[in-house]
Specification:
about 220 residues; TIM Barrel; transaldolase activity; eight-stranded parallel beta barrel; binds erythose-4-phosphate; pentose shunt; single chain; Probable transaldolase; Transaldolase_3B/F6P_aldolase
Length: about 220
């Protein structure tokens, strides 16, 4: 399973990269705004800065919602750096744009996916990644993990190569359950990745080992 971090915060990206388990980064317009990155040139520069920190794919989202606009913006984003994956929303023109980018060798991440039907369309259009938002489904009392399982089944039935990128991850159990189901990638906050480290028996066991060592030395 690949681990992506879902942030535009350079310090957190560095911290995850230093841990040695990071495979990529996802961003979205809200995450960029949260870091105070505004204005086209600053946004483009920020994507390059992210690419220079991480070894792996960096999703950069288009703002346009019409086919021509998405193609223009996506091509500009893809030219920024070979690690860029163009993030396209699951709307009608988005599906057309996914197909255009597939045909032109530009990698894509289909975002804002909330149903198996949408994921099927994204795969048909050749998306590199599909991003089902499981946390946001859980927020409205709908089982996000069930969606990941449905998409896994459908993609395996037909051998679709689109990678399932479980997004909107909120906590460690999302990651573990997505890994059990067979999601190809997960993207979450640094806290969800670092949370995997924790176990009280590790802490108490290490404490005891160090105490015992001190007794004998
Ligand atoms: C995915 O690419 C999105 O950026 C992200 O996972 C959305 O997560 P949220 O629901 O926590 O905003």
């Amino acid at each position: 399973m690949k681990f992506f971090i879902d942030t535009a915060n350079l310090d957190q990206i560095r911290e995850a990269q230093d841990l040695g388990v990071l495979d990529g980064v996802t961003t979205n317009p809200s995450l960029m705004a949260k870091e105070g990155i505004t204005g086209r040139n600053n946004i483009l520069k920020h994507y390059v800065d992210i690419c220079n920190i991480v070894n792996g794919d960096v999703s950069a989202e288009v703002i346009a919602t019409d086919f021509e606009g998405m193609v223009k913006e996506g091509e500009e984003l893809a030219e920024l750096h070979p690690q860029i994956v163009v993030k396209i929303p699951m709307i009608k023109d988005g599906v057309k744009a996914l197909k255009y980018f597939t045909d032109n060798g530009i990698r894509t991440n289909c975002t804002l996916v909330f149903s198996a039907g949408q994921a099927l369309l994204a795969a048909k259009a050749g998306a590199t990644y599909v991003s089902p938002f499981i946390g946001r489904l859980d927020d409205i009392s709908t089982d996000g993990l069930e969606l990941i399982a449905d998409i896994r089944l459908i993609y395996d039935n037909y051998g679709f190569e689109t990678q399932i990128l479980a997004a909107s991850i909120r906590h460690t159990m999302h990651i573990i359950n997505c890994a059990k189901i067979g999601a190809d990638v997960m993207t979450g906050p640094l806290s969800s990745i670092e949370g995997l480290l924790n176990h009280p028996l590790t802490d108490s066991g290490l404490k005891k080992f160090l105490e015992d060592y001190k007794k004998g030395n």
